[in-house]
Request: fold
Amino acid sequence: MGLLLRCCSLLLVLLLAACQPDNHPREYQLEGKTMGTYYVVKFYTEQQPDLIALQQELDTELELINDLMSTYRPESELMRFNRQQGLEPVTISSQTAAVIAEAIRIGQQSEGILDVTVGPLVELWGFGARGRITRAPEAFELAAIRDYVGVDKIALDGNSLRKLEPRVAVDLSTIAKGYGVDRLAEILLVHGYQSFMVDIGGDMRIGATKPTGPWKIAVEKPVTQERSVQRILALSNVSLATSGDYRNYFEEDGIRYSHLIDPRSGKPIQHKTVSSTVLHPAAITADAYATTLNVLPATEALAFANQHQIAVLLIVKTEQGFEELYSDAFKPYLTVN
Reply:
């Protein structure tokens, strides 16, 4: 009888253990296409999530952002504004206004280096929707377009956006991905998911640490051949964005023309910085700063970053290979835990 009782007790313990919920967080992943690229969302939770409903919510938000800000959708809110020829103010959505406000802030802070009206110059140099060119533009073509390019050619007052030059056009491609990352992260937080990683085409926002520790994020080596890793960062509660010119350029008569345009000259950058990686609490801001600091020559970029306490890693091409330069605010991230 004693042996039977012990066996029954053991069976009861096993049955009770089987009925207990699994308290160990599990990783879940969702992915899809948006903004001409991919998105990946990873998160940890102890409960079984409704992945179908969550993905629908994420996709709906991304579709809204595209409908508002895409330059590839003719009827997006932004493209309707761009087509307008008059100077009267236009009421825009709070979402688009928030993105433009941050673009104007950083554009003014950088003295025009970040310029969301530079799209016509990008097109002129063959890096826009109309496709590649076979020769560099003539000086008179460049001068004609520069007349209506500049962040000072638009004015935002609340949700009211106005052109100060009728030909000006706004392109938010240097900042909209970051905004999309932030919006997906906010959805995850609303659902109670604290430990997550949101990635839209390389722009990321990282939440709390994983059960095993910080998220390990690779900074890509700026080479055009096989993808390889320059550095691994251990991150939590921060956003990351990288801007680089090593995959999007053309050459003519031995001269390399980058897709990154310096608004001061109206021409592609010619310096040796091949990528900039920025860490910032908000992905929208990291996205904008990454472009800004890639357009600036390395010495100017580091001076700007240190002045404004921006964490940036620059990769510069030298005769010996690639050299890393980093701002003071980036130094705490150099050691992988």
User: Anything to note?
Assistant: The chain has a mean pLDDT of 88. The radius of gyration is 24 Å. The CA atoms of residues 219 and 270 lie 23 Å apart. The longest helix spans residues 51-69.
